[in-house]
Amino acid sequence: MKISLRQKLIVLTLSLVVFVTIAAAILSSVEIQRYYTLKIKQQLEMQLSEVEYLLANSALVDEDSRYTKFTGYARQVNLRITFIDSLGTVLYDSTVPEDSLAFLNNHLTRPEIQMALHNSSGYDQRHSTSVPETMLYAAKVFNRELAGDKPLLNQIYFIRLAIPLREINQVINALLWKIAGGSLIALLLFSLLSYYFANKLTFPIQKLAAIAESIKKGNLDAHFEHNTKDELGELAELLNEILDKLRSDLVQMRKLEKMRSQFLGNVSHELRTPIFAVQGYLETLLQNKECDVKMQRKFIKKAHRQAVRLNNLFTDLIDISRIESGEMKMVFRNFNLHKSLQSIVNDLQETADDHNVTLVFANKNDDKVYALGDKNRLKQVIINLVVNAIKYNVPYGKVEVGTREEKGKITIYVADTGRGIAREHINRIFERFYRVDKERSRNLGGTGLGLAIVKHIIEAHHSEIQVESEENKGSTFSFSLVKAAQES
Ligand SMILES: Nc1ncnc2c1ncn2[C@@H]1O[C@H](COP(=O)(O)OP(=O)(O)O)[C@@H](O)[C@H]1O
Ligand SMILES: [Mg+2]
After folding, report:
1. Which of 310, 441, 467, when mutated, tests ligand 1's pocket best, judged by the most ligand atoms within 8 Å of its CB?
2. Residue pLDDT, tens place only, 382-420
3. pLDDT value, residue 111
4. Contact 456/450 with Cβ under 8 angstroms?
């Protein structure tokens, strides 16, 4: 069974309220009872002294009227008065006629008398044998010195007063009823209050839970409403922030997913073309048995070119996926930058010649310039840039590779006098498979992945690739590296 937070709160506060009121009621009843008993005992004590005083001093105590006078007094103060001699014989009792005194039991064994005998005063509470009621008894030893030589008083040894407990109990019971009634009202009030507060407290939580539930069902546009500045308000704010993040993450994820599926589509398209071409050339060769050797060589050459293109594509694809999965680790070292640039320029001289392009290294005479980075990956970058500058050039054009130093940095540039890149293409040429002129790129053996790889590698060096280009004038690609003092 699911117990809601609200139910738990209500049960908790209710049990607390019940416990506290019952405890308060019991404690106050006990305290009131104790207080009243004490008060009555004190009063009885006072009255004992009063009776003793009356006995000793009053003219009441003459032979004829002593009983009637005491009986009148007892009735007036609503007490039972008893005088007892040292042997326990009752000499007088305000509730017993004089002629019946002889039938009373000896009172010496009564607990209050025994106590008075030992401590000069005593109390007891019990059901009386003479009067059918529970009584509170108080007794004291009569102070003989007060009596003087009055002969009648010589016999009196104990004075005893008794009061029916019924009256005390009536007062206490009335009070207890009032306490019980009050407690009940308090209980009801507290219950209502606790119910109200439990509801008030749990309502916003229930609201939050309902919204969370709707989010679970996929409603990401939900918003956690709140109008308090307490912890719940803070929680709602926090949840809203998380939700916002989730939404933007989701947008990002969808974008990435779209890019991935686009990329996959591009890859299969790029692969299909050369594979079909190779298949086509080979089938032509197989079917045309009479075709001459010159023709055969022509088809084999064409098939070979497509195979090279396939190989380039695979190499670039593998590089891209290794870079993007973080598998390609860069090894940073200080290396001789000018030596590397010079050797690249030397190696690509033939390609430049093929395209009727002049390729030069601008810093030929300075071979002691060092930089920090992954030498082989940076070589790959520069080859990509120089090959592009040669391929997308014009006949008799020029390509210049060089470096510039500034503030501990060293900038490498590849500048060409080629066809340039139109403004609308400049930001897109680093995208995978993006080419300005698809046909020209394919014919020149391009994969459309070169600049994407370049960008990744430069960014892994905490740098940025820059392009300046003007249509029909040429382009300059550049990036900076940290300058080093020597090789490491
Ligand atoms: N130096 C350059 N001059 C003019 N266009 C260029 C130059 N370098 C790159 N491009 C353009 O950017 C595109 C993307 O280059 P890249 O990623 O190296 O792919 P690919 O060279 O295989 O086509 C090229 O197809 C080309 O249109
Ligand atoms: Mg390229």
Report:
1. 441
2. 999 999 999 999 999 999 999 999 888 999 999 999 999
3. 93
4. no
- The verdict on the CB of residue 435 being under 6 Å from ligand 1 is yes
Token output for 400: 């210049």
Please report, to the nearest 10 degrees, the dihedral formed by the alpha carbons of residues 194, 199, 204, 209 taken in order.
120
Distance 392 CA to ligand 2 centre (A): 9
The partner residues of 370 in beta bridges, in order of sequence, read: 336, 484
How far is residue 427's CA from residue 215's CA, in Å, rounded to a whole number? 38
Instruction: Report the pLDDT value the prediction gives residue 180, as an integer from 0 to 100.
Output: 86
Any atom of ligand 1 within 6 Å of the Cβ of 392: yes
Residue whose C-alpha is closest to residue 278's, from 313, 305, 310, 303 = 303
421 close to ligand 1 (CB < 6 Angstrom) = yes
**Any atom of ligand 1 within 6 Å of the Cβ of 270:** no
8 Å CB contact between 250 and 220: yes
**DSSP secondary structure, 402-447, as one string:** EEEEETTEEEEEEEE-S----HHHHTTTTSTT--SSHHHHHHTT--
- Give the pLDDT confidence score for residue 152 in this predicted structure: 63
471 lines ligand 1 (CB under 6 A): no
Domain 330-484 has CATH 3.30.565.10: yes
Report the predicted TM-score, pTM, of the whole model to 2 decimal places. 0.59
Ligand 1 pocket member 474 (CB < 6 A): no
pLDDT tens digit sequence for 151-181:
667 788 999 999 888 877 788 788 888 888 8
Q: Are 311 and 278 in contact (CB under 8 A)?
A: no
CATH of 5-172, one of 2.60.40.420, 3.20.20.100, 3.40.50.300, 3.30.450.20: 3.30.450.20
Rounded distance from Cα 394 to ligand 1 centre (Å): 14
Distance CA 436, CA 421 (A): 8
**Which residues in the chain come in under a pLDDT of 70?**
1, 58-67, 130-131, 147-152
Q: Are 208 and 232 in contact (CB under 8 A)?
A: yes
Domain ranges for the chain: 5-172, 231-323, 330-484
pLDDT for 481 equals 97
Ligand 2 centre to CA of 447 (Å) is 7
Tokens read off for 99: 């002629």
Which top CATH class is 231-323?
Answer: mainly alpha
Using the mean position of ligand 2's atoms as its centre, give its distance from the Cα of residue 410 in Å: 24
Give the residue, by CA position, lying nearest to ligand 1 atom 13. Answer: 435
Q: How far is the CA of 387 from the centre of ligand 1 (A)?
A: 9
